[in-house]
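Hi support team,

I'm filing this because I wasn't sure whether my run with guanosine-5'-diphosphate finished correctly. The job status page said complete, but I'd like someone to confirm that the output block is well-formed before I use it downstream. Pasting the exact inputs I used:
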Amino acid sequence: MGVTAIVGANWGDEGKGKITDHLAGQSDFVCRFQGGKNAGHTIINDYGKFALHLLPSGVFFTNIINVLGPGVALDIEAFVRERNELLSRNVPEPQIRISDRAQVVLPYHILFDLYEEERLGSRKFGSTKSGIAPFYSDKYRKIGIQVADLYDEERLISRLNLALESKNVLLSTFYKKDTMTAEEIAEGLKPLAKVIEPYVCDTLELFHTALKENKEILLEGQLGALRDPDYGIYPFSTSSSPTAGFASVGAGIPPYEIKRIIAVTKAYSTCVGAGPFVSEIFDDQAHQLRERGGDSGEYGATTGRPRRIGWFDVVATRYGCKVQGATEVELSLLDVLGYLDEIPICVKYELDGEQIDDFPVSAKINRAKPVLQTMPGWKTDISGIRTFTELPDNAKKYVETIERLIGFPIKWISVGPRREEMIKR
Ligand code: GDP
Ligand code: MG
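And here is everything the job wrote out:
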């Protein structure tokens, strides 16, 4: 298949880690191309249950090369912690490569994230406080630090000093906190730079060579289309593009090489953090689904926060699949709905008295209300089923109705959190 992008069609947490791990067995490379340790990709395999944050989901296979591309926000401490955790849990040493052009999350990025959410109080965005927004702001303000800078002390100190000229004013006068020096930050980075040195390389060359050799490459997106800075629900978006289009940039793969784009969507909706969420449900209905959802309830893999819950949203998912340019769709967590007599899905939005099919711009979405249609439930455990034909009729109908309404082919149906719990259509 060459290059496959695995990306989210919704708000994130669609189960991208699970399908990446499922498909990784037949791949040579798995690459994270954007975002940072704010990701939480849950994987359950023979080694146990893991929530991967920065590491690509191919780390459980010793023959796979796991790449952190230049588009990633590299928090080196988090990286080292995560790698050590894998090793301490008997996962064999994974093969890892880090782009020499990736930029580094610095201590002040995390502090600014924290201080800003504190300052905003009730107006906060629900950041994971991993420093992601300050990190990407600095990258595009051209005051970021690339991995290669870590190995040139003079350049590192001078780049940090440039950034600190404005940071320290903000720290002392705006947030009323302690200032920092370039020397202390550089000192803290020194041992970290040493630890990652063996992994650092030119990943563009690595991929171009791999493509010549017809290697299989998986590009693993973080979050989902509705968190994209351009196409998502702004400003409740993330700060890097989680789209298959950006995968080309963030990994360093020619765009025409990405032949297959698997957009992952959940059989119901979840959303972490603040912002409009049209098909949201509340109280007991939400509680029931939250407790039964995921592998052990719908709680953030990174933050432990309870996820907001909603019915499947056709309008948002069709839009998400378009934003991703999906060539196929995975419908995940279908097994979770097996307890319901009837399953509502949001088929349209009502906006200012009109029923609409297209996802509204951020300025209007707050006024959108869900138009629900109800499907009959199947009331059985489907987690042991491995072929589409064996699914109960009502489960088949649910999949086929969603497929028809979103207008993208559902090729994969995930019926449980474990690696093998998957139906290929
Ligand atoms: P990601 O961020 O897209 O990788 O998704 P997360 O790992 O954050 O959230 C998905 C949650 O659903 C995790 O708890 C997974 O273990 C779980 N999960 C994934 N696929 C399935 C599935 O088909 N069925 C069930 N029951 N849980 C699943
Ligand atoms: Mg997640």
